[in-house]
Every structure is written in C-alpha cells, then in structure tokens.
Amino acid sequence: MIADWDDLRVFLALARAGRLAIAARKLGVSHPTIARRIQSLEATIGARLFDRLPDHFALTMAGEELLADAEAMEQAAESIHRRSAGLGDTTKGTVRISAGEAMSGFLARHLSTLRRNLKCVEFELASSHMLANLSRREADLMIREQVPDLGSIVTRRLGRAAYAVYGHPDLGLKAPNPTATWIGFDDDHNYMPGQAWMRDLLQGARPHIRVNNWQVLHEAVRSGTGLGVLPCYLGDPDPGVRRIGPVLNDVAIDQWLLVHRDLRGLTRIRAVIDALVRLFEEERPALEGRAPARRNAA
Question: Is the pTM of this model over 0.90?
Fold first, then answer.
C-alpha cells in the first residue's frame, strides 16, 4: 500500500523530467531527497520503477504501469484543490491573474480601477508569456491572445489590441523606414504580434536587435536604439516613444480571458472577471489605438 502521496509526486516529477536535477528544481528539494523518495516508493511497490542510465532516468515497464495510475491520482487531487476554493466561498481571498509582459503592465497601471469595489480581494499579478496551468491553479485567471483547446477551460473575449510602429521622438520619422535599425523578437519568439509584418517590411531579414520580452523591447525603443512594433496600449501612454505611421490593421489581436470551469462561479473570481470586463470596455479606445493623440504623436 502506498502511504505517502509525496512519493508519487516525486515519481511523477522524475518521470516527466527524466533527470534528478530538473525534478529537484521543479519540486524545490535536493537531489538526495528525490533519490530517497524513489527508493522508498520502489521498496513499497516491490519493483524497480526506473532504469538509471548514464544521462537520464527511464521508466521501466512497472514504472509505465504506475504512471497512468499516478496521473489519475494527480488529476483527482487537483480537482479537490480547485473545488476546495469554493467551500468557504466569499468575496474575500486571493485571485491570481496570469498575463503576458505587456498586458501585465497594462493591468498594473489600472489596478486601482480593478480594485475600486474589491478592496477585500488580494490580487496577484504573474507576468509571463508562457501558459499557466489552470487545472493545477498556477493561476485563477489568464489573459492570452490564443485559446488552448481544452474542454476544462471557459473563455471570454475581452477586446482587441492594436499594434503600431514606435520610435524615439527625436528620430523625426513620419513612416516606418526599412533601412532604419529595427528591434524585434528572437527566433524562439517570432510568433509574437507584429513580427511577421516586420519581416515582410525587411524582405525576410531578421531585425538588427532581438529580444524575448515586450518590456525589454519597449525600453530599447525608448532609448532611441531603433524602431519596433509595440501594442498601442503600451506605446501610446509613454511620452518617451512616438508612433510612426498608422495602426497596423493586419496585426490587431483579440484578448481572451480564460478560467477553469470549476472556478468560474466562485464569488471572488466572478467579481474579478466582471471588473476585468468593465476595465477592457472602458479602455477600449486605448487598446484599439484610438486614444486621444499626444502632442508628439504622428
């Protein structure tokens, strides 16, 4: 009989990672702890679960059989964890929102608006362009530009974000210039909005300077290093950059709110969802690049 769920958690981490170091880092424990837990589990089951190869751990046949059952137990534990959030359902509590770097900046500027009638809610804002796992409650809500194909996730369209080319006000350009210095995303992130448009302008050439983060791109443009495509809600409010040319009509991207179906009816989650919907409606002109022009705008 397996008496310790922690042993199974360690088993799952090692089965997925294949290496002690990665599994230990994910769980926040030491290598010896991982090894000790696996040995304990193998002793309880009476079978070897991993073949210790020179560069990784490979599941044995017994390990493969245990993996399916352990994953089923993990899903049940995650479901209990999600549903337990509603046992004392009130407006009070913490709501964790995951969004990309640029959108996190937008939300940060409007936190006072979001919390206008929600002073009893504690907000956690997690900035990452990687998808959080809503089933494991790595976040309660996500704002993303893509909708994952998962039956457990409920989505709602919040609005549409426009993009444009920006540069330092001193550049004095009236239109995007393909011979200028361009700042964009690296090859691992060239799926980001505006990058295909930029490559077309540059006739397939990569931008001269490449980053992996919207905030870094914004800072590089602000420094006067070159031109870059930014979301209008990020570039327009900043007097340190100037819009070069019109909104890029082919680059506008829908913004989606994602929540796990087990949590969408929770009072504090529902209240934050409603607040986000109101915020996006109020800020629609800024999101769509139709906010009143600043003095230095083209």
Answer: no
